[in-house]
Specification:
The chain is mostly helical. The chain is 58% helix and 3% strand. Strands 1-2 form a two-stranded antiparallel sheet.
Length: 151
């Protein structure tokens, strides 16, 4: 498909012959996709091997019940958690992400201040102002909904 390509001489330059592969697209696919697909192939092969060679267990009430020192368990297996527990967890994640974002912004602020990243002068500064405005609106919403009442 591709023959040897000769470079035309330019004044003061050395002429050299560049050899090309017979199938450059195929070699690029192999070097790009084979390392990416190999772990998936091994994962699927391990899963199929465990399905084919694994033993099928028979389920019954005695095997499915929890062992509690020989005593029959009473009540529900899993305790119920209050909605407040999940609310606290979600608010922690929200504040944690905000803190990480603001910390990385503060560390890189001086380096990024002179760059015109968004087409707006000092876009990094106004981007943080926009983020803080949205965050404050979210905090006001949580406050009005009573999410910060720890009763």
């Amino acid at each position: 498909m591709f023959d040897d390509v000769a470079v035309t001489p330019v004044a003061g330059c050395v002429t050299e012959t560049v050899e090309t592969d017979e199938h450059p697209f195929a070699s690029r696919i192999v070097t790009t996709y084979v390392p990416a697909i190999t772990p998936e192939i091994f994962g699927v092969a391990a899963l199929l091997t465990s399905i084919i060679l694994g033993q099928k267990g028979r389920l019954n009430k005695a095997k499915d019940s929890a062992y509690e020192c020989g005593m029959i368990s009473e009540g529900s297996i899993t305790p119920r958690f209050s909605v407040k527990f999940y609310l606290v967890a979600m608010l922690f994640i929200l504040f944690d992400i905000e803190l990480i974002f603001m910390y990385t912004w503060a560390v890189s602020f001086q380096d990024l201040l002179g760059q015109n990243l968004s087409g707006i002068p000092n876009g990094i500064f106004w981007g943080m102002i926009w983020f803080l405005a949205l965050f404050i609106v979210g905090e006001i919403y949580c406050l009005k909904k009573g999410a910060f009442d720890w009763k």
